[in-house]
Amino acid sequence: MRWIATRVESYRPCAFQFFAGYGLDLHEIGEELTEADAATRGTVIHEILEDVLRPLAEGGRPLVPETEEEALQRLRRRGRELWREAPARHHFGRAALWRLGWENAADGLERLIRREARRNQALGTARIAGLEEPIAIALPGIDPELLLRGNIDRVDAGPGFAQIVDYKSGRAISRRAVERGERLQLQLYALAAREQLGAGRLIARYAYLDPRAEEWELDSAKPDDERLIEAAAAHAAAVRAQVSAGDFRVNPQVTPCPSYCDFRHICRVNQFSRWKRWS
């Protein structure tokens, strides 16, 4: 089977959550969306960024200060259209209220594009090599093969290196969480992209809509970062082994359980239980 990076990552905080969602295919009954939730808003933001940068990617050009105005002009034109069409496309209500949010969203997207252009210039990127770039490759050094699939928001290429960028419209992910092995998606994408693109040097990072978020990167040319990237393959292999062994113990590694967990009402260890015990 092919593994999705987010699925590998989801096992580590709580194996029971993984089992209930992917093993038993249990989900809470969703209510009809009266307005866009955070996930839907993030999807729309990704759609806009992909559309805005598509002409640069098709022309083999980078997002840098010399091309940012072209991208911003398309943002102002096409971004507004995509934002206004989102309630019909994603099936949620309060369309009039949603449309009022475009100006704030546009300001954030414009700042993001300008920041990305400056970073790309400093790094020396030569072109956008892919948008929503599909990956499907066996992670290196794992026997039997562990096949990973997914999509990378943006891939940039430069002399002797590739850069992968994952857009985030919500809460920032700390480098510390990556170092503790709690977050694996970026490193797994870095491993897969390096194999698939044949890049000697790979830079991986998140790009946040929120300008207050602390940005950081993983650069395979730095020994500490390379160790973090390489360690992700071992983490993924360990998750596969535990899943194969049927290890779905209720043993959350986060305290308290996240309020967004779909299975908090059926879990034997949850934030509502007065007999909560962490083992």
Bulk shape: globular
Query: So what's the oligomer here?
Result: single chain
Number of helices: 9
Helix-strand topology string:
EHHHHHHEEEHHEEH
Structural class, from secondary structure content?
Answer: alpha/beta
Estimate the helix proportion, in percent. Answer: 40-55%
Cα distance, first to last residue?
Answer: 31 Å
Q: Main sheet?
A: 6 strands, mixed
Q: What portion of residues belong to β-strands?
A: 15-25%
Let me know the average pLDDT.
Answer: 88
Count of strand segments: 6
Low-confidence spans? 273-279
Radius of gyration: 20 Å
Task: Please describe what this structure looks like.
The protein is α/β, with parallel strands linked by helices. It is globular. The chain contains nine helices and six strands. Mean pLDDT is 88; it is low at 273-279. Strands 1, 2, 3, 4, 5 and 6 form a six-stranded mixed beta sheet that branches.
Task: Please describe the topology of this protein.
Elements: E1 2-4, H1 5-11, H2 15-23, H3 38-58, H4 65-90, H5 95-99, H6 102-123, E2 127-138, E3 147-158, E4 161-168, H7 175-179, H8 185-197, E5 201-208, E6 217-219, H9 223-244
Parallel strand pairs: 1-3, 4-5
Antiparallel strand pairs: 2-3, 3-4, 5-6
List descriptors.
279 residues; alpha/beta; 47% helix; 16% strand
Task: Characterize this entry briefly.
This protein has 279 residues and is of the alpha/beta class. It has helices at 5-11, 15-23, 38-58, 65-90, 95-99, 102-123, 175-179, 185-197, 223-244; strands spanning 2-4, 127-138, 147-158, 161-168, 201-208, 217-219. Strands 1, 2, 3, 4, 5 and 6 form a six-stranded mixed sheet that branches.
